């Protein structure tokens, strides 16, 4: 059972794959509808699809490669899922409820090599990239969970901010984005999708060149190299003087807005002088940039970091505002569960019976 997930194929790829085997385009569309609109659990369930086509698909692909290992539900409706992959690895996916809809945060890699010093995910080095199908399947799993609840709810937004650096898995990310945005399938509008990067400058440029109207968020987290290197070791390889020109290239090329993520760590990067320095750094981009302040969620694994005082958060916010910078403070989701990215997985991976791959 090592066939790839069928969710990794874009509609064009499915049409081409079936055409090479003598099946019409309309059949590919029929299969597509079964996958994404009727959300069938196995190929045999595609009851009105030609039997030869069903057998062919069954021989070469699988619909489900993941099983639910654990689920935590928060009082605010946030649900954190741990899915087990076929190779035994665990990945995290989170469903969040907002006023504007339901968003799912997906994982793109098993572990992460970027090594942000505040992040529970970064504690476990990357062992492999997820395929486009494995990323898309997370959304299908969550959508099936919603289907079963019977409230007629639909995933409307996707954030690629889970475990991993999405731009370090660029080709699979691009296929994934095409799959979920396809208007005949899940039809998640590109403007409802946000990809978050730690700041891989070359890939920011490549992403701009694709002209995909998907939102981009860049993790800045500090206004100068000394502090940013302390928080994110990737800054050694890609310092601010390399990152900012890539951001400028993106803004110029796409004319789209960008979000700059800034995690607030008490007495590390949350002082008014840091806000002033940040305002100066991004002053020329202020029309197209929004700073998203993220109050830190303490995790056991990183006891050196604490959450900023509320007064410090507000002082930081007010300073940016006064400098004419667009700024928001991220609302918390799932504060009563293992809310920080990678926290649930990290805890589970530390349990010997959960950590050992099964295949
Ligand atoms: S914050 Fe994102 S990029 Fe940084 S270590 Fe964690 S998962 Fe990787």
Automatic annotation (TrEMBL):
E.C. number, please? 2.1.1.192
Q: GO terms for molecular function, please?
A: 4 iron, 4 sulfur cluster binding; metal ion binding; rRNA (adenine(2503)-C2-)-methyltransferase activity; rRNA binding; tRNA (adenine(37)-C2)-methyltransferase activity; tRNA binding
Q: What keywords is this UniProt entry annotated with?
A: 4Fe-4S, Cytoplasm, Disulfide bond, Iron, Iron-sulfur, Metal-binding, Methyltransferase, rRNA processing, S-adenosyl-L-methionine, Transferase, tRNA processing
Relay the cofactor remark from the entry. Binds 1 [4Fe-4S] cluster. The cluster is coordinated with 3 cysteines and an exchangeable S-adenosyl-L-methionine.
One GO-annotated biological process of the protein: rRNA base methylation
Q: Which domain of life is it from?
A: Bacteria
Where on this chain does [4Fe-4S] cluster bind? Answer: 112, 116, 119
GO annotation, cellular component aspect: cytoplasm
Please give the InterPro entries that the UniProt record associates with this protein. Answer: Aldolase_TIM, Methyltransferase_A, RlmN_N, RNA_MTrfase_RlmN, rRNA_lsu_MTrfase_RlmN/Cfr, rSAM, rSAM_sf
- Radical SAM core domain location is 98-336
> What's the protein name?
Probable dual-specificity RNA methyltransferase RlmN
**Native organism:** Cohnella nanjingensis
Q: Which gene encodes it?
A: rlmN
